[in-house]
Specification:
The protein contains ten helices and six strands. With 221 residues, it is an alpha/beta fold. It has a six-stranded parallel β-sheet, sandwiched between helices. The longest helix has 16 residues.
Length: 221
C-alpha cells in the first residue's frame, strides 16, 4: 500500500525465462515503492516496451535471444538518458560486469542473491548510486591497481605542483621557450617536465595533455 507521498519506481523487467520474471516480480512488488509495469522476454521487446510505457528503471538479464541485455541497455540509455538500468544475471563474471558498466548500467546484481540485493539495488540506482556485488568491487579495485602498476591510470595526485604548472601552460598553448621564461627555468627543464608528464599520464602528445588538464580542472574548456 503506497502513501500519497511515496514515489513509486516504475520498473521494466526483461528476462527470457517466465519463471525467473515471476520470481523477480514477487520480490519487487512486495515493496510499496517498487512496481513492475512491463515485462519483456528479450532485449528487443524491452526496447519496444520502453517506448510505450513510462518507466524509471529497467532490470535486465544479460543473455537473452534476439537482442542481449547489453545491447538493449545501450539502446535504452541512448534513447532515455534519465532511465536507470540494473543488470540481473547469473554470471559472476568480470568481463560481463565491465561490459555492463560500459553499456551504461547503474548496477550489477547476481540472480543467486536477488532476494537479498535486488530491492536495495533498485533504490540505490534511483538515488544515482552504483550498486555492485562484492565480487565486482574486488574486480574494480584489482583492475584499477593493475592499471596503476602498468602506468596506465596513475592516481590524480602523482603530479608535482611544478608539473601541474607546466601542464597548465602546455595546455594553454605556450611553447617550451615561453614556459621557461614564465617559470624562470631552463628550456631543458621544461622538456624534462613535459617528458615526465607524458610518461606519468600515459599520454603521447599535447592534445592528450590538454584534454587531461581540462578534465582535471587546471584550465577552462
Amino acid at each position: 500500500m503506497t502513501t500519497p507521498h511515496t514515489h513509486v519506481i516504475r520498473i521494466l523487467l526483461a528476462d527470457d525465462h517466465a519463471l525467473v520474471r515471476r520470481g523477480v516480480r514477487l520480490i519487487l512488488d512486495r515493496e510499496p515503492d517498487l512496481e513492475v509495469v512491463a515485462e519483456a522476454g528479450d532485449g528487443a521487446e524491452a526496447v519496444e516496451l520502453a517506448r510505450t510505457h513510462a518507466i524509471d528503471l529497467a532490470v535486465m538479464d544479460i543473455a537473452m535471444p534476439r537482442m542481449t541485455g547489453l545491447q538493449a541497455t545501450r539502446e535504452l540509455v541512448a534513447r532515455n538518458p534519465g532511465l536507470r538500468v540494473l543488470m540481473l544475471t547469473m554470471h559472476d563474471n568480470e568481463q560481463y560486469f565491465f561490459q555492463a558498466l560500459r553499456a551504461g548500467a547503474d548496477g550489477y546484481v547476481l540472480k543467486s542473491v536477488a532476494d537479498r540485493d535486488l530491492v536495495a539495488a533498485c533504490r540505490a540506482a534511483m538515488r544515482d548510486e552504483p550498486f555492485l556485488y562484492p565480487g565486482a568491487v574486488t574486480a574494480l579495485i584489482r583492475t584499477y591497481l593493475d592499471r596503476v602498476r602498468d602506468g596506465e591510470e596513475p592516481p590524480e595526485q602523482v603530479l608535482t605542483p611544478r608539473e601541474e604548472e607546466v601542464l597548465k601552460l602546455v595546455a594553454e598553448g605556450h611553447s617550451s621557450k615561453e614556459i621557461a621564461e614564465l617559470l624562470f627555468i631552463s628550456i631543458k627543464t621544461v622538456h624534462r617536465h613535459r617528458e615526465n608528464l607524458l610518461h606519468k599520464l600515459g599520454m603521447r602528445d599535447r592534445l592528450q595533455l590538454t584534454r587531461y588538464a581540462i578534465r582535471a580542472g587546471l584550465i577552462e574548456a
